[in-house]
């Protein structure tokens, strides 16, 4: 699928449709890791918990278990 590069403030971006975001498991505000290799742009979803310590992860799990 071809996309156009658009101006966003002083930067540039490529728009991603809601269907494409759903297919990638992404949404507005999510973080992606962007890499350029041999002229190819790659974007990888980054887990919101990727840099979270184990005690903090346990706290998140316990909080989710106690929700009504």
UniProtKB/TrEMBL annotation:
Molecular function terms from GO: DNA binding
Record-linked Gene3D superfamilies: 2.10.260.10
Ranges where the SpoVT-AbrB domain occurs: 3-48
InterPro entries for the chain: SpoVT-AbrB_dom, SpoVT-AbrB_sf
Keyword check for DNA-binding: yes
SUPFAM superfamilies documented for this protein: AbrB/MazE/MraZ-like (SSF89447)
Pfam annotation, one family: MazE_antitoxin
Domain of life assignment: Bacteria
Signal peptide span: none
Keyword DNA-binding appears in the UniProt entry: yes
SMART domains given in the database record: SpoVT_AbrB
Keyword line: DNA-binding
Protein name: SpoVT-AbrB domain-containing protein
Record organism: Candidatus Protofrankia californiensis
